[in-house]
Write a structure and sequence with these properties.
The complex is a heterodimer. By secondary structure, chain A is mostly helical. Chain A contains 8 helices and no strands. In chain A, helix 1 (3-15) crosses helix 2 and helix 1 runs parallel beside helix 3. Chain A has helices spanning 3-15, 20-31, 34-51, 62-104, 113-119, 121-126, 136-139, 149-156. Chain A has 3 domains: 3-51, no CATH class; 76-105; 113-156, no CATH class. Chain B is mostly helical. Chain B has one domain (6-184): RNA polymerase sigma factor, region 2, helix turn helix motif (Rna Polymerase Sigma Factor, Chain: A, Orthogonal Bundle). Chain B is 72% helix and 0% strand. Chain B is built from 9 helices and no strands. Chain B has helices at residues 6-13, 17-39, 42-58, 69-88, 107-124, 128-138, 144-151, 155-176, 178-184. In chain B, helix 2 crosses helix 6 (128-138). The longest helix of chain B is centred in the first third of the chain and has 23 residues, at 17-39. The radius of gyration of chain B is 17 Å and the shape is globular. The chains are: A mainly alpha, B mainly alpha.
């Protein structure tokens, strides 16, 4: 094992994830390499430096600040809900008023037979069916067009 | 690290302030440490810490209370750290005096501050992906598989990043004279 490979194993050991086989290989190398033995010491110090924590003073007051914010955030949520309910209710009522003609209209798209005939009166005149619609109820009969009595009665109904 | 229990995590999810307080008490040290390692200055780390807890509380509904709290929490913390680094559009500056200097007349205190500065300077010279792994390992006390899961990378990649990160850190720390200070103190 060369020193470069040994250094990787030293780093792994300092980080705590060297397995026993590689540990044995490393130990053999360290037994004959004073330079790498110094590396072991230095890596240990490097990890120690990385692990050190001095945060107690630094985060003083953090909890108070965040909790105060959370309290005000909750109040704001309630305020929004309190305002939102009547506003939404008013909007719903307004929407119902605006749309009511659509939902409550009595307009029917069905036409009576007379209305249909009136709508096509001009065309009927062109094809020679009488001069007007006024006589329709009294005089009109499908029999004039060759239909049988029963069929004519059915069509007139 | 003994994290918060599942009951506290559920109460946190429901917006309970006492649970929030528990979360802060439990993780403020880790979060500050991650902030310091990622961002490199005490002021930024303080600001970041506050940001993490506020965000965690705001986004608590995204946390599934049936699952462990820490992966979700540290993922959020890490994302915020990355976001801050992106905003800077550069690796944090390593010059100046990133570590807060308190009024300290004793020689030991001065040396301590100087050594912290060496640590921060050396960390800021690392690639962010190495800093992240080192921060999660040493500040959040996360295991390799937890880091792998959180970052979405294989365990072997985590090991490589930690190894390379430590080797680079050691080199920069040595150049800065950190070992002399550590051995003196």
């Amino acid at each position: 094992m060369n020193c470069r490979k040994a250094e990787e194993l030293i780093a792994d050991r300092a980080l705590g994830f060297i397995d026993s086989d590689r540990q044995q290989d490393l130990d053999k190398h360290l037994a004959q390499c004073p330079k790498c033995r110094r590396e072991v010491e230095e890596y240990s110090l490097a990890v120690q430096a990385l692990k050190e924590r001095d945060t107690v003073d630094a985060v003083d007051g953090l909890a108070d600040t965040v909790l105060a914010w959370a309290g005000s955030a909750k109040r704001n949520d309630f305020r929004i809900i309190r305002l939102a309910v009547p506003v939404l209710a008013a909007a719903a009522v307004l929407l119902m008023i605006v749309l009511s003609p659509v939902f409550f209209s009595n307009d029917s798209t069905e036409m009576t037979r007379l209305q249909v005939l009136e709508a096509y009166a001009e065309d009927l005149e062109v094809v020679g069916i009488g001069s007007g619609i006024a006589d329709y109820d009294a005089d009109f009969s499908y029999e004039d067009y060759g239909f049988t009595d029963s069929l004519s009665n059915y069509l007139v109904q | 690290m003994a994290g918060i229990d599942q009951d506290s995590a559920k109460r946190f999810h429901d917006g309970d302030h006492e649970a929030l307080q528990e979360v802060i008490g439990q993780y403020q040290g880790s979060v500050f440490g991650i902030g310091l390692k990622l961002l490199g200055s005490v002021d930024d780390a303080k600001d970041y810490s506050q940001d993490v807890f506020v965000h965690a509380y705001e986004k608590r509904h995204r946390f599934d209370p049936e699952r462990p709290f820490e992966p979700w929490f540290f993922k959020l913390a890490l994302n915020l750290g990355r976001q801050r680094l992106r905003k800077r559009r550069e690796i944090p500056k390593s010059d100046g005096m990133p570590v807060e200097i308190v009024e300290e007349t004793a020689e030991k205190g001065l040396m301590e501050n100087e050594r912290k500065e060496f640590v921060q300077n050396a960390l800021q010279k690392l690639k962010p992906k190495y800093r992240e792994c080192l921060a999660l390992r040493f500040e959040a006390d996360m295991k390799l598989h937890e880091i792998a899961e959180l970052l979405g990378i294989p365990i072997e990649t985590v090991k490589t990043r930690l190894r390379r990160g430590l080797m680079a850190f050691k080199e920069h720390y040595e150049k800065a004279g950190g070992y002399c200070e550590l051995q003196k103190s």
